């Protein structure tokens, strides 16, 4: 059981996760930001490792990724930072990134290093279920890492069942079919989709992401799921001056 | 087909559909329906009719007499440059627009490098009265300005890709982001044999008309269906795959693919993917791509916008790995000189992309009776500025 499994075993509502890009705005800000987020009351963290061609991301996270790469962020640098991070941070940590850097690093080696550095789960948006199941799942399991799958309003019920089977901590529910950085607009269609997924009685809890940017959207998401993830909005904050001082206020503004 | 795709969308180690969940339903819909749709007699009849009456097919297989004398073999040029819109790209665009209509899609998006695929897509959208948005790298928009104007005249909206290298790879990223945001009503017409399965197979099938015709035409010219050599340039690799397709299973036919070396394979300014790349994942498929040790995609370089791409299609990666095709590389200078030679020997101004394939002729060792087919994938009108600057005309 990793920290993520433990969190979801004990808490089912109003969970808040924050996404940010490792090595942004500066190469060495990764650990301090994590510590500040935990102190401010974030429940778990999603740390993005940058990729040159992030097709599922909007301009904000594209920019942070490019800046992080320019700052010299690599997986090896990140794993060193995560060891430091684990001396100061106890909440669950997920890594989020694209499949090519993992393939280059070696999937088995990546999983081993991530586990050693205290990572609890991985989100790889462009790693398909077939490839995960047939080639990579054992490496994840052997290292006690949760693989987090995404579900969109277009995902079929059969596929959601299959995803539920392969998941062991939570399912990432996209608020709409979009890239990151949009705004959550809970239309009747989307509400019906949340309700439909909720009614499926999945074994895993769900967390809603993409378009969560303030207390209104967070509260709305928590009506349908165990919590929500804030990404682009937080990454925008990191571009401001004295952003470290603003983190507690930011978390408070989301939680309300 | 021995070298074809398997049920999971793989060619040996390469292929697959590495797409975010947001694109899964789109790609899955295509996977389930493309073979049924394109093998339907009505579809085939409409496709063939348009290729004949609108595109002007079959494109000639021209016996290039002066080239043949120069290189000491029988050199034939497959004249895709004579197609409507000026390149082979129209073959695939016609196929995909007919498919999109049968899928009930109301809006078309595309990426383009040299602008040839963008023009072809804008053309078929005008033909069918469907909304068209083309993503094009900001740098490519500047160096292929006439094609940008063409697309606008044809009613397409051209959106500049301003991230990364501002070329074809970034235009592809932007098109994928658009597709993620518009999953239900939009079809993405990918212009090359790249992208998630089933695109590499689907585009190869639409382009296979090139080698289908070539076999028949060669029989008429020489009394033999099979040449000794078939040659084509490779960016993503769609004209090459179309040119190779019906020769793949005939192992006696040597397949030569020519990549863009830019300023030289080791100059740091190159797009010679098989020479510089490693296995990985790019734009939805497992293939060979130019990347750093950390798996970041390297920004490629070629004077030819259509070859300025850091990967190759997964079927090419497979043919390369198992040695079914040979991959060569040609520099900017060699390609431009070969383009000029083609003008002066044969009276044909080739696209700089196609000039890469022609430049390779000079490096081959042919026997006297060898029959050699080179795919002249596009015409050079769009490249006049580049030629003029280079040769000071």
Annotate the secondary structure layout.
The complex is a heterodimer of chains A (256) and B (393).
Chain A: H1 3-10, E1 15-21, H2 30-40, E2 44-48, H3 59-70, H4 75-88, E3 93-96, H5 99-105, H6 107-116, E4 121-123, H7 129-142, E5 146-147, E6 150-151, H8 157-166, E7 171-174, H9 188-199, E8 206-209, H10 215-224, E9 227-230, H11 232-237, H12 243-255
Parallel strand pairs in A: 1-2, 1-9, 2-3, 3-4, 4-5, 6-7, 7-8, 8-9
Chain B: E1 10-11, E2 14-15, H1 24-38, H2 41-55, E3 61-63, H3 65-71, E4 74-79, H4 89-102, E5 107-112, H5 116-128, E6 131-137, H6 138-143, H7 145-153, E7 157-161, H8 168-181, E8 186-188, H9 199-207, H10 209-222, E9 229-233, H11 238-244, E10 254-262, H12 273-276, E11 278-282, E12 285-289, H13 314-321, E13 325-331, H14 332-346, H15 352-361, E14 371-376, H16 384-391
Parallel strand pairs in B: 4-14, 5-6, 5-8, 6-7, 9-10, 9-14, 10-13
Antiparallel strand pairs in B: 1-2, 3-4, 11-12
Helix pairs in contact in B: 2-4, 4-5, 4-9, 5-7, 9-11, 10-11, 14-15
Describe the overall structure.
The complex is a heterodimer of chains A (256) and B (393). Chain A has a single domain (3-149, 213-255), classed as Aldolase class I (TIM Barrel, Alpha-Beta Barrel). Chain A contains 12 helices and 9 strands. Chain A has helices at 3-10, 30-40, 59-70, 75-88, 99-105, 107-116, 129-142, 157-166, 188-199, 215-224, 232-237, 243-255, and strands spanning 15-21, 44-48, 93-96, 121-123, 146-147, 150-151, 171-174, 206-209, 227-230. In chain A, strands 5-4-3-2-1-9-8-7-6 form a 9-stranded parallel beta sheet, sandwiched between helices. In chain A, helix 10 links the parallel strand 8 and strand 9. Chain A is globular, with a radius of gyration of 17 Å. Chain A starts with a helix and ends with a helix. Chain B has 393 residues and is α/β, with parallel strands linked by helices. Helix content of chain B is 43%, strand content 18%. Chain B contains 16 helices and 14 strands. In chain B, helix 2 runs antiparallel to helix 4 (89-102), helix 4 (89-102) runs parallel beside helix 5 (116-128) and helix 5 (116-128) packs parallel to helix 7 (145-153). The longest helix of chain B is centred in the first third of the chain and has 15 residues, at 24-38. The model of chain B has no long low-confidence stretch (mean pLDDT 96). Chain A binds chain B through residues 51-56, 58, 62, 66, 69, 74-75, 98-105, 125-128, 130-131, 149-152, 154-156, 159, 174, 177-179, 182, and chain B through 8, 16-22, 24-25, 163-164, 169-170, 173, 176-177, 180-181, 183-184, 278-284, 289, 291, 293-297.
């Amino acid at each position: 059981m990793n920290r993520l499994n433990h969190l979801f075993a004990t808490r089912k509502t109003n969970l808040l996760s924050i996404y940010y890009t490792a090595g942004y705005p500066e190469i060495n800000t990764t650990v301090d930001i994590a510590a500040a987020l935990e102190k401010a009351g974030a429940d778990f963290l999603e740390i993005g490792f940058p990729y040159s061609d992030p097709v599922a991301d909007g301009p904000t996270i594209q920019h942070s990724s490019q800046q992080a790469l320019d700052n010299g962020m690599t997986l090896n640098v990140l794993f060193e930072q995560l060891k430091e991070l684990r001396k100061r941070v106890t909440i669950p940590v997920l890594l989020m990134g694209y499949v090519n850097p993992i393939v280059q690093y070696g999937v088995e080696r990546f999983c081993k290093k991530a586990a050693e550095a205290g990572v609890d789960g991985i989100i790889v948006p462009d790693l398909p279920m077939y490839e995960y199941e047939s080639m990579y799942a054992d490496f994840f399991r052997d290292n006690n890492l949760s693989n987090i799958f995404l579900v969109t309003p277009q995902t079929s019920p059969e596929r959601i069942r299959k995803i539920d089977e392969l998941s062991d901590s939570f399912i990432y529910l996209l608020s709409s079919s979009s890239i990151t950085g949009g705004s959550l607009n809970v239309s009747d269609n989307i509400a019906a989709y949340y309700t439909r997924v909720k009614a499926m009685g999945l074994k895993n809890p769900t967390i809603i992401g993409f378009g969560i940017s303030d207390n209104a959207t967070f509260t709305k998401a928590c009506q349908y799921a165990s919590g929500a993830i804030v990404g682009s909005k937080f990454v925008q904050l990191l571009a401001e001056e004295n952003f470290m001082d603003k983190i507690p206020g930011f978390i408070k503004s989301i939680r309300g | 087909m021995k070298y074809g795709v398997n049920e999971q969308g793989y060619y040996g180690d390469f292929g697959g559909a590495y797409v975010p969940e947001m694109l899964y339903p789109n790609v899955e819909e295509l996977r389930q329906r493309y073979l049924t749709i394109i093998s339907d007699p009505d579809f085939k009849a409409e496709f063939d009719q348009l290729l004949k009456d609108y595109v002007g097919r079959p494109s000639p297989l021209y016996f290039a007499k002066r080239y043949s004398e120069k290189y000491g073999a029988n050199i034939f040029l497959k004249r895709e440059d004579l197609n409507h819109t000026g390149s082979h790209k129209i073959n695939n665009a016609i196929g995909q627009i007919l498919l999109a209509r049968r899928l009930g899609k109301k809006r078309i998006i595309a990426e383009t490098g040299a602008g040839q695929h963008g023009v072809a897509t804008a053309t078929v959208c005008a033909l069918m009265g469907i909304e068209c948005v083309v993503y094009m790298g900001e740098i490519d928009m500047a160096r292929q300005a006439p094609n940008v104007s063409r697309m606008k005249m044809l009613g397409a909206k051209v959106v500049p890709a301003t991230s990364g290298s501002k070329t074809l790879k970034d235009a592809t990223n932007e098109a994928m982001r658009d597709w993620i945001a518009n999953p239900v009503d939009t079809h993405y017409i990918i212009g090359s044999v790249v992208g998630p399965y089933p695109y590499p197979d689907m585009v190869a099938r639409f382009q296979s008309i090139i080698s289908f015709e070539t076999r028949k035409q060669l029989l008429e010219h020489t009394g033999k269906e099979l040449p000794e050599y078939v040659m084509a340039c490779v960016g993503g690799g769609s004209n090459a795959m179309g040119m190779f397709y019906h020769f793949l299973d005939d192992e006696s036919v040597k397949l030569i693919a020519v990549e863009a070396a830019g300023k030289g394979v080791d100059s740091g300014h190159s797009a010679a993917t098989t020479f510089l790349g490693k296995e990985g994942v790019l734009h939805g498929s497992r293939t060979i791509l130019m990347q750093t040790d950390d798996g970041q995609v390297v920004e490629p370089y070629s004077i030819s916008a259509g070859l300025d791409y850091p990967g190759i299609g997964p079927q090419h990666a497979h043919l390369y790995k198992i040695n079914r095709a040979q991959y060569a590389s040609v520099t900017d200078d060699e390609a431009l000189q070969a383009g000029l030679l083609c003008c002066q020997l044969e009276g044909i101004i080739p696209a700089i992309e196609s000039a890469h394939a022609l430049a390779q002729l000079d490096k081959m060792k042919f026997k006297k009776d060898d029959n050699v087919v080179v795919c002249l994938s596009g015409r050079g009108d769009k490249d006049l500025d580049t030629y003029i600057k280079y040769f000071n005309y």
